[in-house]
Design brief:
With 192 residues, this protein is an alpha+beta fold. The chain is built from five helices and eight strands; from the N terminus they run E-H-H-H-E-E-E-E-H-E-H-E-E. It has helices at 31-37, 40-43, 56-67, 120-132, 149-157; strands at residues 21-25, 70-77, 85-92, 95-96, 103-111, 139-144, 161-165, 171-176. The protein is globular. It starts with 20 loop residues before the first strand and ends in a 16-residue tail after the last strand.
């Protein structure tokens, strides 16, 4: 399989669910929900595509563009009335790495400030790992800004390994499905 060739994992992120989160199409997010997700404080550690989106049309246009190269889903709180959208999960389409041939995808996620500190990121990553375990093996990579200690802790607790310092000073982490899962690593029931 050639570099960049899409691999059909047969698993949709829309099937992702955890005790408090459920995936739904990002297009279902309200204007207010998307505005909260694109808040400058929320997106400060993310790629430029998330910065300076001035209005709902621009936010939706950027997410539509991103959806051409990744699966993008909204994360709704299924334990709250009206199931508000509180986050986004972005997983690039898996492709065979040029150097190793290993199926690799890139992870991104964000939560509105109102959802910070509730353990939702850890819950999301754990659910994603269980979700990916039913498909073919895939290496999931994520870049973290050096001063984004909360995201680094989330990935480390979930068994992601620090690979290297990547481009732009980001720290790269990776995890491969089919290896020890969080529950197998003594992290059952973690919430933060």
């Amino acid at each position: 399989m050639g570099h960049g060739e899409k691999i059909d994992a047969g698993v949709s992120l829309l099937d992702l669910q955890s005790p408090r989160l459920i995936a739904r199409p990002w297009q279902d997010c309200s204007v207010v929900e998307l505005a909260a997700l694109f808040d400058p404080e929320v997106v400060c550690h993310l790629p430029p595509v998330f910065h300076a989106a001035q209005d709902d049309a621009e936010r939706r246009s950027r997410l539509a563009g991103l959806s051409r190269e990744a699966e993008v889903v909204a994360l709704a709180r299924c334990d709250l009335p009206r199931r508000p959208c509180v986050g986004l999960l972005i997983l690039s389409h898996a492709a065979a790495a040029a150097d190793t041939g290993e199926n690799t995808c890139h992870l991104g996620y964000l939560f509105a400030k109102s959802a910070w500190g509730a353990g939702l990121a850890s819950e999301l990553i754990s659910a994603l790992q269980r979700h990916l375990a039913v498909g073919p093996p895939v290496k999931v990579c994520g870049g973290v800004e050096p001063d984004n200690h909360a995201s680094a802790r989330v990935l480390e607790k979930a068994g992601f390994q620090r690979d290297s310092d990547g481009a732009g000073g980001k720290i790269r982490y990776s995890w491969t499905s089919g290896r020890a899962q969080p529950d197998e690593c003594g992290l059952r029931g973690f919430g933060g």
